[in-house]
Amino acid sequence: MVHTPGPTRLAQQSMAFVLAGGRGSRLMELTDRRAKPAVYFGGKSRIIDFALSNAVNSGIRRIAVATQYRAHSLIRHLQRGWSFFRAERNEFLDILPASQQSGGENWYLGTADAVAQNIDVIDSYEPEYIVILAGDHIYKMDYERMLMQHVETGADVTVGCLTLKRQEASSFGVMAVDNNSRIVDFVEKPADPPPLPDDPDKALASMGIYVFNWSVLRELLLDDADDATSSHDFGKDIIPAMVKGGGAYAHFFSDSCVMSGLEPAPYWRDVGTVDAFWEANIDLTDFVPGLDLFHEDWPIWTYGEVVPPAKFIHNEENRRGRAVSSMVSGGCIISGSNIERSLLFTKCHTHSFSELFEVVALPKVVVNRHARLKRVVIDRGVEIPEGLVVGEDPEEDARWFRRTDAGTCLITRPMIERWIAAR
């Protein structure tokens, strides 16, 4: 469906709290130096930009971001790209690193504890509603629609939910709902997910997005903080307890997913593995991608580096700067190389006679002459040596690089240094 964003009256009474402290260990070496929300995506963005852009585009201009694991690059990105809020207009983006608040533990013990440790900060802005968001998913959503449902139903909590095939829902928290979308049961990663009332082949999976009245959540967090048996987590503790109380409702993502009209279906991705990260980036090069980044009514805001346009040079036989079915960002120089179905981030440089097929190259990657790369993810700042071939010999690839069972290779600077040292 083509979605027109709603009014912002409820959004203006709301605050967004983004949970952005996760490591994302399944992304392997991509998160050795950065938290998962700070990982690059889509040519110029970071993963966290999607949750933040959804909030701003929905009319929510009071935002807090809780950071923890390897937070420097994330904090630097927020400072550079999200510093346009004006306090005199009651706008802000607060960065809340884990810190010792009251003589106890300084790390956030769980998602609920991350909010509980910052109750005083949230109180100071006096929100009526609080929207809890995960900072590590790719999607476009109008939170105002979810807020409207929350108020209309009189819910204690409204949970954003994906409609999935039942066999795909086992790795999520799954909701059983009645015909009024009231949640009657919550099961964490069930082997046999409960079906939808009107579709036995589908199940509702939690997106990790919640809307609360702040006064209600505040009391719940204080009680949870005093419970020594709690894991202080929304999905494990807070939401199941509220479901038992009868005041929890499901919000269908399809009711608030923002679409330009070109996408085939509502789009949501967890790019939490190397394969999923590679696939979601490469999918953007499709003729009609599942996620429309060109939709002007719902832009994905980010830090915009000042760089020149991409440049393509050389026009000789077998030495032609060329990119087909690809996305090439500003500051790139495609010098006599052949690029197909690939995505190059800012300031990449590919040299003559190199060949790239289904490559995701993060910023400032250099690919030297005669290199041949297929189905790879290249970390920021890596220089691919002259003549290196990856993607043609699985055993050789696995010897030097991180190769997944599906055949995606992740290449980082230490891996290249080991390869060079062995030559």
From TrEMBL:
It comes from the Bacteria. Residues 308-411 form the Glucose-1-phosphate adenylyltransferase/Bifunctional protein GlmU-like C-terminal hexapeptide domain. Its EC number is 2.7.7.27. Keywords: ATP-binding, Carbohydrate metabolism, Glycogen biosynthesis, Glycogen metabolism, Nucleotide-binding, Nucleotidyltransferase, Transferase. Involved in the biosynthesis of ADP-glucose, a building block required for the elongation reactions to produce glycogen. Catalyzes the reaction between ATP and alpha-D-glucose 1-phosphate (G1P) to produce pyrophosphate and ADP-Glc. Residues 16-285 form the Nucleotidyl transferase domain. GO terms for biological process: glycogen biosynthetic process. HAMAP family: GlgC (MF_00624). The record marks Q68, W107 as: Could play a key role in the communication between the regulatory and the substrate sites. Homotetramer. It is an enzyme of class 2 (transferase). The gene is glgC. This is Glucose-1-phosphate adenylyltransferase. Alpha-D-glucose 1-phosphate binds at Y108, G173, E188, K189, S206. One of its GO terms (molecular function) is ATP binding. Pathway: Glycan biosynthesis; glycogen biosynthesis. It holds the Pfam family Hexapep_GlmU. Belongs to the bacterial/plant glucose-1-phosphate adenylyltransferase family. It catalyses: alpha-D-glucose 1-phosphate + ATP + H(+) = ADP-alpha-D-glucose + diphosphate.
